[in-house]
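This section describes the prediction task in plain terms. A model, or a person checking by hand, is given the sequence of a single protein chain and must write out its three-dimensional structure as a string of tokens. No templates, partner chains or ligands are provided. The sample shown here is typical of the held-out split.
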Amino acid sequence: MENVNERVGSNVRTVRTTLQLTLAKVSAAMEALGVPMSLNTLSKIERGERGIDAAELLALAFVLATTPNRLLLSESARSSERIELAPGVRVPELVAWDWAEAVSAIGPWFGAAEYGRTMPPEEELIRINEGFRLISVPRRPNYDLPGVAPYLRSVMRLVQMLEDLAAEEGVRRTELLEMVRQIVSGIPDDPGDED
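The expected answer:
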């Protein structure tokens, strides 16, 4: 049976060594954050001999420039490999990551056939997933709504292209902005508004 402390410890060691950080540097950084962690304690964590609490997990993730999920879960997100989330609850790595990233819920019904549990009806699972995402995803300002970020990236690429073109043609930035304003002012907000 997989030991969660061993998994977390292995993940901490993997990330730390990938970043080429010594235990001493991590310990000093933890101290600077106000979450003291001795070399001995870090070593015990990496060997899976000691668990960590939430404050330590968050501080370690910060110091190691990663996410708490990366320290808690697996390095990969394979559907063929299972990971233990709680005693008797083993799920594919991909399912665990989807759960951690608020893509889809995992509940007592997961693995119904394996564990002899009853599976809720599909409509109930849809409702559960909607509620799960509602409470699991942070509220963000309106400019960060799904679908807006790709649009903003496209706008930024267009602006960069226009600036590059203006530079090639010797057009000043203020002239470029005025041309863009004139073009945009002629575009209706709603295609249905056109006469």
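For orientation: The chain is about 55% helix and 5% strand.
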